[in-house]
Amino acid sequence: MASRLNPYISFDGDARQAMEFYQHVLGGDLTLNTYGDFGTDDRGQAEKIMHGTLETDRGFTLMGADHPPGSEHRPGNNIAVSLSGDSADAGRLRGYWEKLSDGGTVSVPLERQMWGDEFGMCVDRFGIAWMVNIGQSQD
């Protein structure tokens, strides 16, 4: 996978409905993963969306999820910029992460997550939220 840059929207419990609506509007393939898919025991959280991706035939990519447990949903401030790629681009993505997080606030350090990828979240020095995900090669 080549590196890409796209919006990532946080929803307040209605990510499934929103992402299905965007698929209806834009077309394309929608993939939704719930918190339950990754083993949560919390019945109230299990069916909520941990990560969703809509990829269209026109080359549009939109990602979204229900905000994680313990975090505050802030309408109007619920969009981040996602930088993602695979291990072939890992060095470049780690470099972007270092520069974006320098002088900013890191909320999730760039490290291996339960889904197997390296992932981090930060707000840069200008107040822009960023997510960096380094996927593992499928070799």
TrEMBL record:
<protein>
    <submittedName>
        <fullName>VOC family protein</fullName>
    </submittedName>
</protein>
<dbReference type="Pfam" id="PF00903">
    <property type="entry name" value="Glyoxalase"/>
</dbReference>
<dbReference type="InterPro" id="IPR028973">
    <property type="entry name" value="PhnB-like"/>
</dbReference>
<dbReference type="InterPro" id="IPR004360">
    <property type="entry name" value="Glyas_Fos-R_dOase_dom"/>
</dbReference>
<feature type="domain" description="Glyoxalase/fosfomycin resistance/dioxygenase">
    <location>
        <begin position="5"/>
        <end position="132"/>
    </location>
</feature>
<dbReference type="InterPro" id="IPR029068">
    <property type="entry name" value="Glyas_Bleomycin-R_OHBP_Dase"/>
</dbReference>
